[in-house]
């Protein structure tokens, strides 16, 4: 979700196999650099593979370009990586959130599993509970929120949505990215 | 689609021998649609996830039929549950969760999965909610009529047999009932498991639903015939709590009931998630 010169990503931390919950601490939101956060939902093995793959690509980028990648460029990189597997795709839904340029303008991007990009101004959702999330975010979102308020809103949206989805929950984490850095908080969710 | 009128008519028409062969095995108790092959139609409109998945392999070369079936699935089953019951020296303990899911969407967190049949018998609900609710209420009516006609309370064995026979006559119609009939009668605490496939099993402990493997783990480890009442209630509660934690399709609130010679009593109604956090805290304290 985007606020005033800040963005936030929240996600649950459940790892399960169909109905059985296997782990409570699977982290799916990764920091690319101080300006970009990257979250993925979907097949766990693809999430792990792509995390390593993007880490490698970003390290190479840093060495060659001698600068940090901007969120928009990273988003395009993600889309290209996913489309390269057009006929045998990675089964993930990625979300990129970051602060672009000198003015720290919020940047959000969501793509589908084969790299079709979308750049909404307000919020992006992904996952098994994405329909619930869409509804709740639509209701609670407002423009130009300060970081504290953004944290509250995104937390409430996530908690409300995961309580209506059987396959989400069991712990959650929220990252808020401002020009001063990233704050990470864990929320107490329902464990049923 | 189904009406109560035809059921009650049949009841009133029955003769002195009210459990006559004809009445119970009659397949015309519930109205069927007035078409050529009602049985096939009944099967085709059930949209239970399980059935769709099972038939996916068979219909692999008939993609069109599968799409048709999904579209025509008018009856969406609310499945996913954990219920358990066990008998011990002092009576019967029943513990249930309260979540209903439709696919992965949580339709409700406050479903009543225990249906009273009479003052000393309870039935649990698993599988299709509407099916269970109707047939357990119907069983309650039959038991009441039995008591009025015969001037004695019906035994759990007889009540479960009646339900079993009715469900057997609707076998293969796409009903989904996985109910446990629990009670206390002259033979002591009794527990029967009744299925829409027609099974009727007697045992001292059962767990039914998507979360039952997880509940069995805790239940089997702690079960003994000579438990005290407190221990037995705690065991039932813990088993359901473990199941709600592990199984995504179970959750909501945990309700515990107890049946002894005085009838059934609702013991507790706790939020599943809060209970889990409490148990975690207790364990940490004990470790210290």
What can you tell me about this protein's structure?
The complex is a heterodimer of chains A (192) and B (288). By secondary structure, chain A is α+β, with helices and mostly antiparallel strands. In chain A, 32% of the residues lie in helices and 30% in strands. In chain A, the strands form three sheets. Chain A has a five-stranded antiparallel beta sheet with strand order 4-5-6-7-8, covered by helices on one side. The mean pLDDT of chain A is 93. Chain B has 288 residues and is α+β, with helices and mostly antiparallel strands. Chain B has ten helices and twelve strands. Chain B has a five-stranded antiparallel beta sheet. Chain B has a five-stranded antiparallel beta sheet with strand order 5-6-7-8-9, covered by helices on one side. Chain B has a two-stranded antiparallel sheet with strand order 3-4. The longest helix of chain B is centred in the middle third of the chain and has 22 residues. The N and C termini of chain B lie far apart (60 Å).
Oligomer designation = heterodimer
Topology pattern of chain B, helix = H, strand = E? HHHHHEEEEEEHHEEEEHHEEH
Q: How much of the polypeptide of chain A forms β-strand, as a percent range?
A: 25-35%
Low-confidence stretches of chain A: none
CA-atom Rg of chain A in angstroms: 16 Å
- Unreliable residue runs of chain B: 13-28, 48-52, 71-76
Q: Taking all residues together, what is the mean pLDDT of chain B?
A: 81
* Number of contiguous helices of chain B: 10
* Major β-sheet annotation of chain B: 5 strands, antiparallel
Strand order of the largest sheet of chain A: 4-5-6-7-8
Give the DSSP E fraction of chain B (strand runs of 2 or more residues).
15-25%
User: Main sheet of chain B: which strands, in order across?
Assistant: 10-1-2-11-12
Q: Tell me the number of helical segments of chain A per DSSP (H or I, 4 or more residues long).
A: 4
Largest sheet of chain A: 5 strands, antiparallel
User: Structural class of the helix and strand makeup of chain A?
Assistant: alpha+beta
Number of strands of chain A: 10
Structural class of chain B: alpha+beta
Distance between the termini of chain B: 60 Å
Helix/strand order of chain A: EEEEEHHEEEHHEE
Q: Which two chains have the most extensive interface, and how many residues on each?
A: A-B, 17 and 24 residues
Tell me the helix content of chain B.
Answer: 40-55%
């Amino acid at each position: 979700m985007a606020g005033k010169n800040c963005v936030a990503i929240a996600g649950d931390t459940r790892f399960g196999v169909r109905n059985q919950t296997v782990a409570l601490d699977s982290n799916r939101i990764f920091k690319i650099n101080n300006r970009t956060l990257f979250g993925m939902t979907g097949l766990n093995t693809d999430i792990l593979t792509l995390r390593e793959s993007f880490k490698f690509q970003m390290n190479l980028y840093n060495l060659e370009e001698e600068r940090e990648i901007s969120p928009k460029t990273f988003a395009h990189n993600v889309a290209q990586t996913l489309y390269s597997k057009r006929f045998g795709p990675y089964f993930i839904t990625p979300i990129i959130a970051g602060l672009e340029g000198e003015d720290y303008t919020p940047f959000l991007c969501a793509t589908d599993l084969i790299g079709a990009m979308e750049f909404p101004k307000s919020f992006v959702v992904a996952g098994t509970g994405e329909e619930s999330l869409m509804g709740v975010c639509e209701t609670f979102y407002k423009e130009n929120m300060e970081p504290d308020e953004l944290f509250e809103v995104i937390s409430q949206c996530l908690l409300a949505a995961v309580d209506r989805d059987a396959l989400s929950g069991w712990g959650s984490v929220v990252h808020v990215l401002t020009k001063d850095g990233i704050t990470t908080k864990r929320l107490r969710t329902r464990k049923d | 689609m189904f009406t109560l009128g035809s059921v009650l008519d049949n009841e009133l028409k029955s003769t002195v021998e009210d459990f006559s062969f004809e009445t119970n095995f009659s397949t015309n108790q519930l109205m069927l649609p007035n078409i050529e092959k009602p049985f096939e139609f009944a099967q085709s409109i059930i949209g239970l996830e399980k059935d769709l998945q099972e038939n996916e392999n068979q219909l692999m070369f008939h993609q069109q039929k599968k799409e048709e079936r999904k579209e025509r699935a008018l009856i969406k089953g609310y499945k996913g549950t954990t219920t358990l019951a066990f008998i011990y020296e002092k009576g019967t303990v029943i513990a249930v969760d309260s979540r209903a899911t439709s696919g992965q969407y949580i339709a409700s967190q406050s479903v009543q999965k225990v249906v009273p049949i009479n003052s000393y018998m309870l039935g649990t609900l698993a599988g299709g909610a509407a099916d269970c609710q109707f047939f357990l209420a119907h069983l309650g009516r039959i038991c009441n009529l039995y008591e009025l006609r015969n001037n004695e309370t019906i035994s759990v064995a007889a009540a479960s047999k009646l339900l079993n026979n009715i469900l057997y006559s609707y076998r293969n119609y796409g009903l989904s009932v996985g109910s446990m009939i629990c009670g206390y009668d002259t033979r002591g605490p009794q527990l029967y498991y009744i299925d829409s496939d027609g099974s009727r099993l007697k045992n001292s402990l059962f767990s039914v639903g998507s979360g039952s493997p997880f509940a069995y783990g805790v239940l089997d480890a702690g079960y003994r015939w000579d438990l005290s009442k407190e221990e037995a209630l705690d065991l039932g509660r813990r088993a359901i709590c473990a199941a709600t934690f592990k199984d995504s399709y179970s959750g909501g609130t945990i309700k515990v009931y107890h049946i002894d010679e005085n009838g059934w009593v609702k013991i507790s109604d706790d939020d599943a998630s809060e209970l889990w956090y409490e148990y975690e805290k207790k364990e940490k304290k004990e470790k210290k």
